[in-house]
Amino acid sequence: MRNLIFALTGLIAFTTALPLKAITPVDVELQLLVDISGSIDSREYDLQLQGYQGAFQSDTVQNAIINGTLGQIAVQMIMWSGSSQQQVMVDWTLIDSAQSANDFADDLASLARPFAGWTAIGSAIEYSYPLFDNNGFDGTAQVIDISGDGTNNQGISPDTAANSAIAAGVDTINGIVITTSQRVIDQYADDVIAGDSPFLLAPADFAAFQTSVENKIAAEIAGTQPVGVVSIPEPSSIILLLIGLTTLLLTRRPDSFRQLKVQLKTQLVPQLK
Question: Are residues 157 and 255 in the same domain?
Answer without folding.
Answer: no
